[in-house]
Structure formats: structure tokens, C-alpha cells
Design a protein that fits this description.
D-Maltodextrin-Binding Protein, domain 2, 10 strands, globular, alpha/beta
């Protein structure tokens, strides 16, 4: 195997044939910013149901989005799944996405999908405070992200860097509702307080679970993963008091790639992911918050007040937020 083939083999996580193989009419190529443990069960269920082979490539949402832009003239992917919808807005503006409004979007809130059908939310995750019950007394549980700049939490708080797109969205949401200077000052205080920036959200919930950190800023499914691992953790949906920014809801989103080689298979896959069967896999297996009212919520959307920010705002703020974070510290 030459160096190029070896690299592609390492990059691609396979459900069926390798991503660099010639496409066939009865298959589709799926790029996914969601981890293999989340998306592979959905791909396998679709493949079993339809006989359409899924060739799966896993990576970070931002990295795959950049690949899609580079491949725009000759797209290799048919479908893209992202960890947040702001990046879909960026891809739409770059002419990467094709329009498709699935009949399965019926009943979804208008903000959960693009009006022109360029992307659709498939599930969501809340941005939560995870804490170790052995290290945080009941009376000291932080109810706001802004409390974490207090000296009592010095060197006790962890967060993933912006390779995790949901971290970037969270900071952008603070800029949207609190302003740039407030957010810059808050981040600087977190850094002065010894905030630990880790590579991945998995590092955050596992570190909190093991007691390496008292508190972590992460996504709601990680609470359930930590519980499943028998870690002594609790969770807070932060900033619910009047005047607080609320809890950010990050949409996982799916889109048809413009110029896809297998558009019919791609549309069938999107329909499947949004169907009750596909949604149940995400809800039960990945602890996602469903976006459709006909799916039972393990963590109801009505259970917390959401940050009032749109996906368009998050997309527009992404580049400026990255610059803001780089000015605060290079580890982001």
C-alpha cells in the first residue's frame, strides 16, 4: 500500500468500502463530524434496511467542512453530518450544500432547519456544567458559567478547545448575548483562574469523572456517558435565572452535498435519520435531545430556558470568536 492509500485508510472509518473507492449507484459516502460510536449504528441500520452501502469518513466537524470546501468542484461526499449547525451556514454561503427539504421535517420548529432546505437539525445537545459530586458540595454547585471565574474554582475547571466545534459555538453565543468585551473579560478571568483547555470533550467528562477536575463545561450526552461509566457526577443546565443567558442548545445537523454522486441515496439517508427509527437510535444510543415532538424526550426541551441565538448568528460570529479566543490564549 502506498503512502497516500495508507493515509486515506487511517482517515476513513469504514462501514463498507473505503472512501477513495469508485462510487456505485447503490451506495453513499457520508462525512461525519460526529464520533463513530454515535453515527455508525445509524449508518448500519440504514444499510440493513435499504441495502445501500454506506462509506463513512469520521473527523472533526471543522476539518471535514474545510475538506468539503476544497472538494467543491468535484465532491466526494454525498452527505455531511456536523456537530453544530453554524458550520452548515458557512458551508451554505460557500455553495457547498444542496437543497433538500425532507418530508420528515414536518412538525419541527422553524429554527431547527434551514428555510431553503440546505441543512436540517437531526438532534441536539445542551451546553452543561458537569461536576464531580465527591469534590463539589451541594451548597457549592455552580448554577452559572460565570461563577466559574470565582477563585474557589481555581485550577478546578476544564473545557475542550475549539477543535470541538461546540466549544466555539458556546463562546460565540456568549458574544451574541453578552457582547464582545464582556466575553473577552470573562474568558480572561477563566484563564487567570487556571482554566484547563483539553483536546476533546471526552477528556473533559472523563477528567471530571475521575476527579482530576471538579467541574467541566461540556455537552449534555457526556453526563449520561459519565453515569454509564459509574462516575459520581451531577449536571446543571446553567444560567436559568432571569437575566441570565440561558443554556445553549447545539444542533447536530445533516445536509446533502451539492453535486453529490448519489443524491437519491443521500436523500433516503436523510429521511431515515429524521424518521422515528433513526431518531430512536440517536436518542437511546447517543443520549441526544430529539428535535421532533413525536419522539419521547429523555431530557425534555421544555426542561430548560435556551440561549436566544440563531444558527446564522453563530456562523457570522465564528471567525471573530476564533480571533478573540486566540487573543486570550493559544491553547484554544
Amino acid at each position: 500500500m502506498n503512502a497516500r492509500c495508507l493515509l486515506l485508510a487511517l482517515l476513513a472509518v469504514l462501514v463498507g468500502a473505503p472512501v477513495d473507492a469508485a462510487p456505485a449507484a447503490d451506495e453513499l459516502v457520508l462525512y461525519s463530524g460526529r464520533k463513530e460510536m454515535v453515527v455508525k449504528p445509524v449508518a448500519e441500520a440504514f444499510q440493513k434496511k435499504t441495502g445501500i452501502q454506506v462509506r463513512l469518513k469520521i473527523g472533526k466537524t471543522s476539518g471535514l467542512a474545510n475538506e468539503l470546501i476544497q472538494e467543491k468542484a468535484r465532491p466526494r461526499a454525498d452527505v455531511f453530518i456536523a456537530t453544530e449547525a453554524g458550520v452548515m451556514e458557512i458551508l451554505a454561503k460557500n455553495g457547498v450544500l444542496g437543497a433538500y427539504i425532507s418530508p420528515e421535517t414536518k412538525g419541527m420548529e422553524s429554527g431547527f432547519f434551514d428555510r431553503e432546505g440546505l441543512w436540517t437539525g437531526i438532534s441536539s445537545r445542551a451546553r452543561v456544567i458537569l461536576y464531580n459530586k465527591n469534590l463539589v458540595a451541594e451548597k457549592d454547585i455552580p448554577r452559572s458559567v460565570f461563577q466559574l471565574a470565582d477563585p474557589r474554582w481555581k485550577e478546578k475547571v476544564a473545557i475542550a478547545g475549539t477543535r470541538e466545534r461546540t466549544t466555539l459555538s458556546w463562546v460565540s453565543s456568549l458574544v451574541a448575548v453578552k457582547g464582545t468585551e464582556f466575553t473577552r473579560s470573562y474568558l480572561a478571568k477563566l484563564h487567570e483562574n487556571g482554566l484547563k483547555v483539553l483536546p476533546d470533550n471526552a477528556d473533559v467528562w472523563q477528567g471530571v469523572g475521575r476527579g482530576e477536575f471538579a467541574v467541566g463545561l461540556t455537552n449534555s450526552p457526556n453526563y449520561f456517558l459519565a453515569r454509564k461509566a459509574d462516575y459520581p457526577v451531577g449536571v446543571v443546565y446553567p444560567d436559568q435565572d432571569d437575566g441570565g443567558p440561558g443554556t445553549l442548545l447545539n444542533l447536530n445537523a445533516i445536509a446533502l452535498v451539492k453535486g453529490a454522486a448519489n443524491p437519491a441515496a443521500a436523500r433516503r439517508f436523510i429521511d431515515f435519520v429524521l424518521s422515528a427509527e433513526g431518531q430512536r437510535i440517536l436518542v437511546d444510543g447517543a443520549y441526544e435531545i430529539p428535535l421532533k415532538p413525536d419522539i419521547i424526550d429523555p431530557v425534555p426541551l421544555t426542561g430548560f430556558r435556551r440561549t436566544p441565538v440563531t444558527e446564522e448568528q453563530l456562523a457570522d460570529l465564528a471567525e471573530a470568536t476564533l480571533k478573540l479566543l486566540a487573543g486570550v490564549g493559544p491553547e484554544w
